[in-house]
């Protein structure tokens, strides 16, 4: 998937002391993020069996990655969030939402991460919550500006075990702007997962449609 050209320069945290400090400021912990990655990777390996559907590996990684994210953050007092049909957690006091995301690459200075499946309109609307203060042009014309004053962060897990926590915006179904990237681990402690040949693996963005009778 070709990366769109971002117009913002992301702030990147690489050194361990900076990574741990920024995660702590956000109410997160490095080991928690690694545990989420490990669970998602384990389920990805399970779904890589030829007996599963072609997108089974990514689907299982997404489902169990999200479950582990929620289980982990709820222990820290966060609450479940389902704004616009997304599946994440919200900080009890701060305007911060965290979602799980399978990506093609993570912790790379040369390549920007992209979701392994196209993001839905709900994710795009949610991600624009703080965009008014960042880059006005990316806000959709249909954006009402009501109830969306949040930062949306993603625990981004790549198949090689690299994982980063990133505050990003979505436009046109793709990550378009990267505000902050926290490089948690480059995956060097990890056995690479086999490529399952599918890029459409976590399309779980449901757009809630209401029809008049």
Can you give me a brief rundown of this structure?
This protein is of the alpha/beta class.
Question: Could you outline the blueprint of secondary structure elements for this entry?
Answer:
Blueprint: E1 11-13, H1 16-25, H2 30-47, H3 56-74, E2 79-81, E3 88-90, E4 96-103, H4 121-127, E5 151-158, E6 163-171, E7 174-185
Parallel strand pairs: 1-7, 4-5
Antiparallel strand pairs: 2-3, 3-4, 5-6, 6-7
Helix pairs in contact: 2-3
What does this structure look like?
By secondary structure, the chain is an alpha/beta fold. Helices cover 25% and strands 22% of the residues. It has 4 helices and 7 strands, in the order βαααβββαβββ. The chain has helices at 16-25, 30-47, 56-74, 121-127, and strands at residues 11-13, 79-81, 88-90, 96-103, 151-158, 163-171, 174-185. It has a 7-stranded mixed sheet. A hairpin with a 6-residue loop joins strand 2 (79-81) and strand 3. The N and C termini lie far apart (40 Å). The model is unreliable at 138-147 and 206-213 (pLDDT under 50).
